[in-house]
């Protein structure tokens, strides 16, 4: 049995937006990315990126205020390979590549580290959007939230969320600060 994934309420609301905008398509259109339709509580936690290739290289278009605060820099206009290196670059780009290849949301969690040695657990929900129906996703909206240090996880994970997962078999709402269950791909 695959463990459940507990989404933060901001991730859950943006997943609901994504599902509503699909309108029978595998992924919603880029044209549906209207900030007036977004959950206002989620906006500071959003990242929007253009997918540049099938390997998951992206260029960041929009960085929410909370992301700028956490990262200490607004990386709008930068590519993923300009921001990250090594294993972390591979991990980040793998999430985008899976989102594009699978044409469905991807959930990931990892440890976010600062240069001063601090760390915090972070979770990301990657939501794909396409330029036209039945084409590969060209843009991804990321809803990234940060959890307390008592929610430490040993290894980063990435999980593709298929329709049956979204419809309630795997996803649950995040309750208390230690309710996040790690997901093992099954």
Quick structural summary:
The protein is built from five helices and eight strands, in the order βαββαααββββαβ. The chain has helices spanning 9-22, 65-71, 80-83, 86-102, 163-169; strands spanning 5-7, 46-51, 58-63, 106-113, 119-130, 137-147, 157-160, 171-173.
Spatial shape: globular
Question: Describe the biggest sheet?
Answer: 6 strands, antiparallel
Q: Could you name the CATH topology?
A: Beta-Lactamase
- Strand arrangement within the widest β-sheet reads 3-2-6-5-4-7
Second rung of CATH, namely the architecture: 2-Layer Sandwich
Number of structurally distinct domains = 1
CATH class: Alpha Beta
Low-confidence runs of at least 5 consecutive residues: 150-156, 168-186
CATH H-level superfamily: PAS domain
Descriptive report:
The protein is α+β, with helices and mostly antiparallel strands and 186 residues long. Strands 3-2-6-5-4-7 form a six-stranded antiparallel β-sheet, with helices on both faces. A two-stranded parallel sheet has the order 1-8. It is globular and about 45 Å long. The C terminus is likely disordered.
List the helices and strands and how they pair.
Blueprint: E1 5-7, H1 9-22, E2 46-51, E3 58-63, H2 65-71, H3 80-83, H4 86-102, E4 106-113, E5 119-130, E6 137-147, E7 157-160, H5 163-169, E8 171-173
Parallel strand pairs: 1-8
Antiparallel strand pairs: 2-3, 2-6, 4-5, 4-7, 5-6
